[in-house]
Each structure stands twice: as C-alpha cells, then as structure tokens.
Amino acid sequence: MSVKSCEKLEKSMVALTVEVGAEEFEAAVEKAYKKQRGSIRIPGFRPGKAPRKMIERMYGEAVFYDEAINSILPDVYADAVKEQELDAVGYPQVELLSVGKEGFSFKATVAVYPEVTLGQYKGLEAPYFLREVTEEDVDARLNQMADRNSRMVDQDRPVASGDIANIDFTGYLDGEPFEGGAGESFDLTIGSGQFVPGFEEQLIGMAQNEERDIDITFPENYHEGLAGKAVVFHVKVNAVKVKEIPELDDEFAKDVSEFDTLEELKADLRAKLAQEWEEDAGHAFEEAVMEKVAQGIQADIPDALIEDQAHRFMENFQMQLRSQGLTMEQYMSAANLTEEALLEQAKEPATQQVRMDLAIAAIVKEEGIEVSEEDVAQEYEKMAGQFGMDVENVKKYMEEAVVRERLGRSKAIAVVVDAAVRTEPKPEESAAQAEKPEEESAAEGEKPKRKRAPRRKKAEESPEETAEGSAE
C-alpha cells in the first residue's frame, strides 16, 4: 500500500489517493477464491474443487476482484489514515479509480477534526445572579414533600373535577378499535388536560363500575390519521379516588424528617435551597462564559461532525423516551414529526455542542493540561465513596479513558471560569432567572437538545448514569 496524495479540501475534508500493489492484491484475490470457490459450479469438478484459473477462464479474470477489494480495503484505508496522521470523523466516501492484475487504486474522501483557533477565553464577563430564598420557595418545597407523602382515598360517589378516576377505555374509529386508543386501570386526574379535549369533562358524574360511550372529535392539528376525526370511546370507571395530602404541622415534620417541629424542617429546607441556588448561580455563570468561548472559536467544521452529534442527541432522546415508557414512533406521531424533521431540529444544538467540544479540546491543548495517574485514582476513590461501592466496581462502569477525558475537560473549564469576571445581571435577566421553575420536566414533549458544558458530577448521579452521559 502506498499513499499517492493527501489533498486538503474545504470544510475540513481530506481526499486520500491510495494504491495497492500487485503482490498485496494477488494475496487478497487468492483469499477471495478460497472463500467463494465452494459456491461456484464448474462442469466436471466437485463443488469447491475447481481450479482458480478454470473459474477465471469461464467467468473472467475479475470474478474475484470485488470480494478481494471489499476484504482488503478497510485495513488499507485505516493504514493510510494512520500513516498520514489524520484524525478522521465518520466513514469515508470511496471511489475506485483502477483495478487489474497490477493492483488497484482508490480515492477516499473523509472528514477530519478541524484545526481550531481560540478566541478570548480568559477574562470573559458574564452576569452572576444569586437567587434569594423566599418563604414561597420554602412553602413550595414543603408542598412537594407533602404531595410525595399523600395517599389515595377511595370515594363512594360520582366522579367530580379534581378527582382521580381509574378507568378502562377503548377508542373506536368507524366502529373499529384504533391503535393507541385503549388502556386499562389508567389513573386520570380530571381537569389535568392529559387526554384529548372533551374526554375528561364527560367523565364527570359517572359512578364506580358505570360504563359509557363518549363522543370525541380530535383536533385538526392532531397527528395524521386521527386529525379532525370523530371517534367513540367506550369507558368504564373502576374507581373514584381523591389525593389526601397531609397537613403541614409538627407531626408531618416528624414523619418525613429527623426534625421535631415544622419550623426546624423549614429552616433546614431554607438552608438547602440557599445552597442549591448558589450552585445554580455558579452553573449558570459557567455556562454563560463557556458559551462565549464556544462562539469565539474559528474552525472549518465538517458536516459529518455535526451530523454525528445530531444522531447522538437522537439516540439519547430515544433513551429518555424509553425510560418514560414511550417509543420514538409514539412521540413522532403525537408531535406530528418525521424522523428527518426531528434530526433536522437537532442540528442547531448539535452545532453548538460541537463548537463547545472543539473549544474545550483546544484549551486543553493550549494550556498543556494533563491528567495524572493520581488524578484518575482520586476520582475513582471519590466516586466509590459517593456511591458506597468499591473502586473495582466503579471501574466496570467508568473506563479510565472516559475518566481522563472528563477530568481534562473539567480542568479546561476551570481555567475559563476562574479567570472570568462576574457582572451584575440586567433587570430583565434577573427577572427571567427569578421566574424559572424550580424543576424542569423532560416528559412534556421535549425535543433533542444539546448537552450543557460539562461540570462537576452531581452527587446523586450513579456511575451507570455518569457512564451513559459520557457516551453521548
């Protein structure tokens, strides 16, 4: 094998022209003959016994060329990439240039990681907003605790708004059940808007064990196949329940915590919220300055790198859906999206993530950041202590290369953040931060979006979750 040329193209693409000599190609052809001769029938010879020259005379000398090229080309390409010290991205486009007894040649066009020119990454300014803990915040956290400790109480009366109705239902379109239109023992909160408009309202007044047909017309913007269609749901109410939430008093505090009074519990929640808000402020500041670093780089980013990241977002999104008991097909049907459209939506955040990754890698290189054996050992020990596992078990979930990469990125981000300048947020920025919900749900039709700049692993993340995040 010899590389005849290595031409740099636009968008960080490289074209390699490679030749494979007669001797190397002949060995591949002979191997192809031995593999395929058993399936070739030649009159007068038992299967697998026909000489190669006889087969080539009957079918042409190129009869084994395709198999020979397919078998040898991946290794030849890999050797060429290694020889030219290319950091290739994805799979190449291969064009066969010539083939014959003297060997063959091909051109492989492949994307490579681009050269990155860093912009400013030290002394950057970003707003720092530290949210104050209010009594409303403490009360909201208390109400969450109360809700988690609530219990369902059966009611011997008809369904009313706010109740939880346990139902069986089957939907019929033109007299036939339709896909996704049935369920059993489903707990539906009346008034939640969880079902199609008009469904929940028609359950009000139904008694336990009562059955009823409900007429529904799907909205015009519903997914294809049911949009604007009139259907009938046959519904049976199995039970009527209400959520009984415990009273917020000293007894509640004793039941859910180590404290004896509600005031002690509230003081503890206030302190924990203050710590959370401080961490959130630090994370928001970190993300703001890292966004500036990512925006400031100059790089001729290949499309393949962005497409690869977009596919990883899609795969991660699919895992999120599975954890919620949904499939990608169900989500796309409900959102009236195709896989191509969803992938296209993922390209913008994928581009942002690629720029972030390239920026961090460039800082690691610029600063000469290294991760020592001691750093890796300490990180394994830290994770083992956090999760009550021994180090060897942690290593099963987190390969050393992953740990090294994460530590290197963390050190690079620390270089940026430690040199950054905190500024007072503008009034509109403060208002937006103050109004942010305490918890954001990933279940409400969330689309694939970019990963944030990596930061310290949260204490509640398991090694399995950390490993999954690193693989994204």
CATH fold category name of the largest domain: Trigger factor, domain 2
Question: Count of helical segments?
Answer: 14
Approximately what portion of the residues adopt beta-strand conformation?
15-25%
Low-confidence stretches: 439-446, 450-460, 467-472
What does this protein structure show overall?
The longest helix has 35 residues, at 262-296. The chain has helices at residues 22-36, 52-59, 65-83, 135-148, 250-256, 262-296, 303-323, 328-335, 339-367, 373-387, 391-397, 400-419, 427-434, 463-470; strands at 2-8, 13-20, 88-100, 103-112, 125-127, 151-154, 164-173, 176-189, 211-217, 230-244, 421-423. It has 14 helices and 11 strands. Helices cover 45% and strands 20% of the residues. The protein is α+β, with helices and mostly antiparallel strands. The protein has 3 domains: 2-112, 2-Layer Sandwich (Alpha-Beta Plaits), CATH 3.30.70.1050; 151-244, Chitinase A, domain 3, CATH 3.10.50.40; 271-470, Trigger factor, domain 2 (Orthogonal Bundle). It starts with a strand and ends with a helix. The strands form 3 sheets. Strands 6, 7, 8, 9 and 10 form a 5-stranded antiparallel sheet that branches. Helix 1 (22-36) packs across helix 3 and helix 7 packs across helix 9. It is extended and about 90 Å long.
Question: Topology of this protein?
Answer:
Elements: E1 2-8, E2 13-20, H1 22-36, H2 52-59, H3 65-83, E3 88-100, E4 103-112, E5 125-127, H4 135-148, E6 151-154, E7 164-173, E8 176-189, E9 211-217, E10 230-244, H5 250-256, H6 262-296, H7 303-323, H8 328-335, H9 339-367, H10 373-387, H11 391-397, H12 400-419, E11 421-423, H13 427-434, H14 463-470
Parallel strand pairs: 5-11
Antiparallel strand pairs: 1-2, 2-4, 3-4, 6-10, 7-8, 7-10, 9-10
Helix pairs in contact: 1-3, 4-6, 5-6, 6-9, 7-9, 9-12, 10-11, 10-12
